[in-house]
Structure formats: structure tokens, C-alpha cells
Amino acid sequence: MVIDAALTMIRILRPLCKFPIAYCAPGRNLQPCFLYSSSVAPTLWESLGFSGRLKHKKRVLNLSALHMYLCCAELPDHDSIMRELELTDTFNSFFRVLQLHVWMAMVRLQPEGRDGKYLRDNLLKFMWQDMDKKSKKLGTTSSSSARTEGLQILGEQFKATLFAYDEGLISDDRVLAGALWRNLFDRNCADASHLEKMVEYVRRQIVNIDRIDSESLFATGILKFLPMHETPDAFERQKLIIEEIKKR
Hints:
Layout: H1 2-11, H2 44-47, H3 58-74, H4 78-84, H5 91-109, H6 113-138, H7 144-170, H8 173-183, H9 192-210, H10 214-220, H11 232-246
Helix pairs in contact: 1-8, 3-5, 3-6, 3-10, 3-11, 5-6, 5-7, 5-9, 7-8, 8-9
């Protein structure tokens, strides 16, 4: 059984739980990004076409959404992460790493009301636009319909992944490890330490991005993910990337 294989993998790990759930969002009402999202269960008011007023100007939020997507796509060192976790160097692996960071951004935005929902929706819009561009560059197919179908498959995969990570977020580390094993490692992780490392990585990132001030998030969209290894060189790399992102 797939579940039995995942549990066997997790059992050989030393006890994790370095970041208790209660600490994952100090001072904030921790919420899954998707299970209770207004995009899934809209209010009656929204269903009638009334979206309400935003506190911030749309042009500011649109730019912040772009910056936030670029933080998800460029701040994590994808090449280093894939090498360290022994993931195959493919577009699919790139997308699996990307969607993990986009999910964490969505978790951070979930408690932020209408402005947070607007920012989240535009973050996803920029992600799918970028995926479409990247699929064109790969040139695996010249057919627009085939490319659209491929993106639709990724979209369904993305929704299922959000549910899995949400469950891991509000559960214990074994559940999160199972979600990562299925959705990041694609059920193929020969080294249990990689799984342990990523559970700790996710818990650490959730704590870190929760500390970012909401107004700063809306004004700039800069989401400072921590490097996998917090070395001076890694932080300097991120500093340079953030400076470039702010210019876009």
C-alpha cells in the first residue's frame, strides 16, 4: 500500500515536532490556504456579484502580487534544492518546488481579508501565465490545445496538493511528511533525511513569513523565504534577488 510505504519511511525518522502547530502562526489565526478559501465557498454577498471595497489600490496589489510570485519562483534556489533532495531535473520537479512555496504564500495571505484574497488570486494568475510561457519555451508541443490541456492537468494536481499540504499544516509532522512524500517527492524518496529536512523547512518557513507585517506585504509583496541553509552567501544571494524583484 502507498500509505504503508509512506508510514514506513516516516517511522525511521527521529521525532520531529520542532515547530509545534501552536507556534506556526504566533499571534495570528492560522488557517489552511484552500480548505476554507472564499474561492471554494463564496459568501452569498460575493455570489451576487458584490466583492466589496479593497483597502489598498488595485495597481499596488497587482504589483505586489507579481513581486510575491517572483519571490516564490526565484528566492528558493531550485537547482540547489533539486540536487540536495535528489529530484529529477525536469519541469515537473521545478513545478513541485514552486507550488510548495506558492502554497506557503497562500497560507500567509489567507487571514488577510478581501485584500489578501485579491492578492492571492493575482499571485495565481501570474503563476499560470509564467507556466504557460515556460511550457512554450520547452517546445514539447506546438499545439496550443495540447499545451492548454497540460496546464489543466497541472491545475488539477495543484488543487489536490493544496488540500494535502493544508492537512499537513493543521496536523502533525507525520501527516505533513506524507503530503511532501506524495507531492514534492512524487512518492520517490530513497533517503529519509530528505523528508525530515523538508518537514522542518516548511515549519520554519511558515513561522518566518507569519512575522512579516501585513501592510509591508500589501505594499511590496516581498515574501522573504529563508534559505534551506542559512549561510552568509545564501542570504547575500537572496538580498540581490530581492533588489532585482523590486525593480520589476
